[in-house]
Amino acid sequence: MTWKLTKKNLDNPSLLVDESLLSLGNGYLGVRGNFEEGYSDSYQSIRGTYINAFHDETEITYGEKLHAFPDTQQKLLNIIDGQTVHIYLDDEKFSLFEGEILHFERHLHLDLGYAERIVHWRSLSGKEAKIHFKRFTSFVTRELFAINVKVEPIANIKQLKIVSSVNGDISNFVDKNDPRVASGHAKRLEILDVKKEDAYSMVKDITYASELEVACVTTTKIKASNYTYDSNVTSSSIVEEYTSDGNNPVELSKFNIYTDTLRHGKELFDAALTVHKKIENITFDQHLAVQKEYLDNFWFTSDIEIKGDEQLQQGIRFNIYHLMQSVGKDSVSNIAAKGLSGEGYEGHYFWDTEIYMFPVFLMTNPSLAKKLLLHRYTLLDSARQRAKEVGHTQGALFPWRTITGGESSAYFPAGTAQYHISADIAYSYIQYYLVTKDEAFLNNYMAEVLFETARLWIDTGHMKNGQFRIDDVTGPDEYTCIVNNNYYTNAMAKHNLLWAAKVYQILKENYYDKLKELTSKLNLSEIEVDQWKDAGEKMYLPYDEEHQINAQDDSFLSKKRWDLDNTPKDKFPLLLNYHPLTLYRYQVCKQADTVLAHFLLEDMQDSETIKRSYDYYENITTHDSSLSFCVFSVMASKLGYEQKAYDYFTETACLDIDNLHGNTKDGLHMANMGGAWLAIVYGFAGLRVKESGLSLSPSLPVKWESLVFKLQYHNRLIQVKMEKTMVTYLVLEGEGLTISHNGESIYLESGKEVDTRY
Ligand code: BGC
């Protein structure tokens, strides 16, 4: 059970959710868990295939458009449909919504890397067949999405027909009632070419505005005792039919290769054919064996084993698996808020990556984590330009939501105003450096990103009465917008500024040539660096004497408290039921804000302030954002609130599987999935990575027998095993090292288990 997700639903709301849960992806390509043959006509489906970052530019229409509001936004597009396969038992079309279902189950295999659907069906007139679908998106041939269908006739069938098609006439999904999937502009793809060449069905589309092209080149292979073949090319699709007698089993394998002009040059059909040639002798089952091999390696470093709770074990594996399926591995892509599992948030990249998902890859697969940082680096020029557009004289302002670097947020109070994203990105660069000590990275990328983001803070804030203050920004909590001195933003900016000054010093002392190069490239001066240091040291961090907590911002604590206890359940999430201004006027949080700062930068406050702040903000937080529970879980662990830590973790781990936010149909909540990992590793195991080194302060949830996971740190692979009374560390790869366990230094000799009592 813990290595697979099984579903048996056939009702419509559940099927929509299952499309996301059983989606497949490999960082490049994503396919929702649709039925090959579709549902009944009255059922809704978000039938989707996506390529990470493959988008169109759509116009943003404003009632009132003010200076530097973005003109356009980017939108991830649903692309050519290679999923469709219909089966006919004589003249009756197979559908799970007609006839009789003698057996039906479907699974997503987290250790094997494919999804399957097993059906035993009897048609209205009594024709019977067993049908077995398998599908995967390849982890090693990223352009490949393959389907295998086995049909075993059981009774009363004279003729069996399998019809496979590729369709280029595709639109996106729109839900006008939900701002998270409501941008309109559903139809953004035009068909460029549809043809059949030898064994290949070829379809090519182009986007309306960005003029990106995408192609799907498909070949089908059939195993049948004898059959006839026919094909039909229309203006939008290619349909292939295989007809055989009704007595013998038939197996069809469909290999779709997707290419796009962001990565494959201009000749997309040629590029797809080249991939086809490479894999032409590999059977469907052989591909599955390769999937397994890939996953064996993946899980070796990335698995988290929980003994004592099967459901949570399954939940965390499911989350880690989907993170891996969603992460972009090339220079043009990142991880979208919904991964490649749906159209929510239009395929945009947010701070979700740096704060919630990046740490998972950083600690388990640093080379993949580096790719995410390099992708952000490619957006640095756009960020510099954006800073200028909004009126800064210097620095880089990263867009709140984007695909290729342009700001795609139309609502600036909860979008562009979230300046903290620039510090979040800087934070992730610093974390990467602390975990890898990658000096080349520091020289070539990190220094520049830190310097440019530091410049942004200098230009945004100002010194008053000896304190550096930052006015009119929005912190993570989107129910409180455009405020002065948001604690989170100021704390993160402080870290950003001080590290920028530190990195300057590192370059000065060790890499003088590089510093000279950067100095001339960025027109940098020591005076600026002194400013960074000064502003960082004098950063104002709001503190409220009355409550002895960090105020979320200058005005937050003087607002009226929202009466959460008497707010009807159906009014949540509040954002769908109250005007933003109503929300802004109250002390009510959508998500962790100050509490998150206390997690990321715990050394900026004493532990009593952190505890009182947690107690305070917990009572006014709705967790309407899925980015919230996990942070409260991590902090509850730190503060010794064991039950709360566990309860918040449970919500996090099962948020999508149980559709707790009611919108999993629009795609999985990827940041929350990363957050579940954080809740375990930074929460229950108490991991922190600082300049002083790696530290853990483990505390196993009482319900669990044990917890085992691995970490990559300074070229070592370290296994951590937490049991009821003991924690065992083992350096599996690399040299021995000293870490801190519950505040005490211990030396871990390579290859030798080191036991420590709690
Ligand atoms: C959250 C943001 C998040 C975005 C995308 C919003 O609901 O408030 O913090 O970045 O979703 O996941």
From TrEMBL:
GO MF annotation terms: carbohydrate binding; glycosyltransferase activity; hydrolase activity, hydrolyzing O-glycosyl compounds
InterPro entries attached to this UniProt entry: 6-hairpin_glycosidase_sf (IPR008928), 6hp_glycosidase-like_sf (IPR012341), Gal_mutarotase_sf_dom (IPR011013), GH65_N (IPR037018), Glyco_hydro_65_C (IPR005194), Glyco_hydro_65_M (IPR005195), Glyco_hydro_65_N (IPR005196), Malt_Pase/Glycosyl_Hdrlase (IPR017045)
Keyword Cytoplasm set for record: no
Ranges for domain Glycoside hydrolase family 65 N-terminal: 8-258
Domain of life: Bacteria
List of residues binding substrate: 351-352, 590-591
Record GO biological process: carbohydrate metabolic process
Domain Glycoside hydrolase family 65 central catalytic: 317-677
Active site: 478 (proton donor)
Pfam family, one: Glyco_hydro_65m
Alphabetic keyword roster: Coiled coil, Glycosyltransferase, Hydrolase, Transferase
Chain coiled-coil ranges: 508-535
Residues in Glycoside hydrolase family 65 C-terminal domain copies: 687-746
Stated family: Belongs to the glycosyl hydrolase 65 family.
Protein name per Swiss-Prot or TrEMBL: Glycosyl hydrolase
